[in-house]
Amino acid sequence: MTWRFGLFDSTFAPLVSTHWALLVALVFPLLMGGLAALFPPKRAWPVVLASVPLLASGGVLLIAFQEAGLLGWQWEIAGLILSLRLNGLSVLLLLTTQCIVVAAALYTPGHFRLTEPGPLARWLWPLMGVALSALSLIWLATDLLTLYIALELMGLAAVGMLMLSGKAPALLAGMRYLLLALVGSLTYLLGVALILGQWGRLDLQGLAEVIEPGPVAWFAAALIGAGLALKAALFPLHAWLTPVHENAWTPVSALHAGLVIKASMFMLLQLWSILLPDTFYAPRIIAWLGLLAIVWGGLLAWRTDSLKTLVASSTVAQLGYLMVAFPLLLGPDIAPLPRALAWEGFWLQLVGHAFAKAAMFMAAGNLILATGEHTLKGLAGTSRRLPLSLLVFGIASITLMGLPPSSGFTAKWMLLEAMIITQQWWAVAALLTGTLLTAAYVFRMFRYSFDETAPRHRYQPLAPGMDLIAMLLALTAFALGLLAHFPLELMHGGSP
Amino acid sequence: MLASFDVIEVLLALCLTGSAFVCLFDRHLVRASCFFFVFAGAMVLAWLKLGAPWLAASELLLGVLLTGLCFFYALGLLSPGASAPLKHDKFSHPWSRVAMRVVLALAWFVMVGAAIRYVIGDMMYSPAEHPLLLAGVLIAALALAAFALHRHLFRRLLAFNLLGSGVFILLAGVAGTSAAAQMLISVGLLVACLGTMLGALLIRQLLHLEGVEALGRDGKPQRSKA
């Protein structure tokens, strides 16, 4: 399992151009964020200019990986070894992150022009830069210290972004999130302390060789798992998620639901595959919780009256699909075929959901902005007046429901195949229930929007491009199903 | 067994635990913040005692100075013109909640204690010889209990800081004061300090917008609006 995460020695040393690309990918967002805090962009074109070098760095890293396979970097600072690695999965997640953050950044100027966001708005840019750098670092880092630093940077930046709107409910939700995230990080730190005390090292590759199953590994895995589950809003610890999204700005919600909580999920799977490679019960507990998450999140989204709560609760349910796949990835006696299928399905679901959820939050934000209403009932009549926003919402929900040929369909198909091979029928039932519930809450939302009898009220015109950006994200999520061979090849690549 | 304890270390451990207790359970918020200063000062000495001068320096800068100032800022004592300084925590807890939380904290205490006693055979600093470690376990348990129990956001922020300190002492006890451990603790200190700054800003802003009542709603929005 650990080789899939690229935890082995690379054959080739990275080229000079690759060093530069890495530097740009990690540091450039910080610089641009700082610059944008000084001179907040009023239009989208400065953002376009700033995103060109960033996307180019992602492209260079992709090409470098395709040419040389796994790449590794290592530095020694004051007796500490910090290391990064670039494997296919990191490239895929890095490109996803860059695309979604750039889309959110492009969306922001238009959003600000229409909403009069207040004096704090300029601080969104540096926080976005920090979040992007920290996320990129999480996909690349291979030691527990770098992962900890990146996780905390990302968490604090996320809290900062979510409370920028400055309204009292947003501040309360942000404060609750802050306290929970900080306690989660202490739990994680205690787990790392156990590992460091027992095995005396922090690099994942070395740990993967020396860790033996036993009480220390279990305790460490439990502590790290609890901390990360809190940050990832996994099922019983998800209650902070909805109020946070209810009050945040649209681009921030898109970033947070699309990427930030996925980073904790990524770390959880990576660290557990080292700490608990062959445990039977731990992944099953996660999977049972995932089953509950699918049902509970689906029901919450189905019963709610608020559009943003619907989208946020659907995140809880969609994370459930990833949790249900845990026993296929971790555990003893899993045949190679279902494990490979589950691995592909897991990441395709994660990436597809990231794009689709970002698009859905933007579409929901557009609808709320245009109608001025936060409730589902307020959507009445939008089918005629705002067809484009509704279309984006629809395309994104196709991916969430898992209808063909979206990436959600391909991912679920692979997960289903793996579950049928290993005869985990309850997981199959969970997946199918989730699909039905998703259809239920999406169609409920559409029923309100096609209501033609509503009293006509004025609609705020949207800035050009706001629907277009959301549409591009939704179409990417859709196309990842048709062109699934590209991400799948990346996930396979770099095997020893 | 007690005879083998270092007297200074015993005093430090007692001072840490005592100031943590007052800091966590005193309803008078200014006094609690003052005891936080005492606690953080004792932490500086504890790091020196454990042989980590760099950690002592960063604790002095981040823990005592910046975090302490953040608390006073949140109380509204630093800017004289600020609205309504915080004085007392007047929120009451139902008994069922108190009982639940105490049981929870006890369970955590027993779990962490057992984990450290039985899981790690050869720790850097054995708890039988170093009372600072026992103080660490106790502080972490008390702080978690306080974090779960209090509804006042300011007190939860205080409790989080003490929980962090307890965890850092535990970390040093389990993993020693090697370069990696010191680095982890420094990052932890920095994160705690940044988090406290953010929290203090939030508390001030909430007070400004909604008044004292907003700090006790456990993160839930106002009922009357719903």
From TrEMBL, chain A:
Primary localization: membrane
InterPro entries documented for this protein: CPA3_Na-H_Antiporter_D, ND/Mrp_TM
GO CC terms in record: plasma membrane
Coiled coil: none
Keywords assigned: Cell membrane, Membrane, Transmembrane, Transmembrane helix, Ubiquinone
Pfam families: Proton_antipo_M
Residue intervals passing through the bilayer: 20-39, 46-66, 86-108, 120-141, 147-165, 177-196, 216-241, 253-275, 281-302, 309-330, 350-370, 386-404, 424-443, 464-486
Keyword presence, Transmembrane: yes
Localization terms from the record: Cell membrane; Membrane
Domain called NADH:quinone oxidoreductase/Mrp antiporter transmembrane: residue spans: 141-438
Family under the similarity heading: Belongs to the CPA3 antiporters (TC 2.A.63) subunit D family.
Name used for this protein in its record: NADH-ubiquinone oxidoreductase
Organism for this UniProt entry: Vreelandella maris
Upper lineage: Bacteria, Pseudomonadati, Pseudomonadota, Gammaproteobacteria, Oceanospirillales
TrEMBL record, chain B:
Keywords of the record: Membrane, Transmembrane, Transmembrane helix
Segments crossing the lipid bilayer: 6-25, 32-48, 60-78, 98-120, 132-150, 157-177, 183-203
Organism domain of life: Bacteria
Name of protein: MrpA C-terminal/MbhD domain-containing protein
